[in-house]
Amino acid sequence: MGITIFFEIGQRLAGVSRTVAAPATVPEALNALERGPTAAESDDGLTSPLSSSAPLRLDSLQAGMASIDAPIAFESLAGQDQIVAAAQLVFTLTGLPGVTGVVLLIEGQPAQVPTAGGSLSEGPLTRADYASLGPQ
């Protein structure tokens, strides 16, 4: 089964296809994000700030909200990289059936995550929070 995961290119997100076992799950999507772009995709200019924040773990999925636990390394991402990493998570996971929003935890604790508009949010985060970074 094909899923779309998102990487950065030129200050925007770009979707790329990955094949996973059906049905697609949040953990499979997280694993695909952690692996980052392929060598060919990197050669084409795709990058992934989120890949340096692995491992990512599904904490819970309730009422459409995916709670994702990230290591403290997520907080070490510089300004725009942290925004892009959060956008990668949101766009990838909300593309899966049944996921409408994302809550990010750092080491099990609720995190305030920057949105594309520069404000901090504990979530749930949706594509609307990162619309300016969305694919064209």
Main features:
about 20% helix, alpha+beta, 4-stranded mixed β-sheet, 3 helices
Low-pLDDT segments: none
Strand content is: 25-35%
Q: Strand tally, please?
A: 8
Radius of gyration: 13 Å
Provide the number of structural domains: 1
Distance between the termini: 24 Å
* Average of the residue pLDDT scores: 93
Helical content band:
10-25%
Strand order of the main beta sheet, please?
3-4-5-6
SSE string, helices as H and strands as E: EEHHEEHEEEE
Q: What is the makeup of the main sheet?
A: 4 strands, mixed
* Helical segment count: 3
The global form is: globular
**Helix/sheet category:** alpha+beta
General description of the model:
This protein is an alpha+beta fold. It has one domain (2-133). Helices cover 22% and strands 29% of the residues. It is built from three helices and eight strands; from the N terminus they run ββααββαββββ. The longest helix is centred in the middle third of the chain and has 15 residues, at 79-93. It starts with a strand and ends in a 15-residue tail after the last strand.
What is this entry, summarized?
The protein is an alpha+beta fold and 136 residues long. The protein has one domain.
Topology record:
Blueprint: E1 2-9, E2 12-19, H1 26-35, H2 39-43, E3 57-62, E4 65-70, H3 79-93, E5 101-106, E6 109-110, E7 113-114, E8 120-121
Parallel strand pairs: 4-5
Antiparallel strand pairs: 1-2, 3-4, 5-6, 7-8
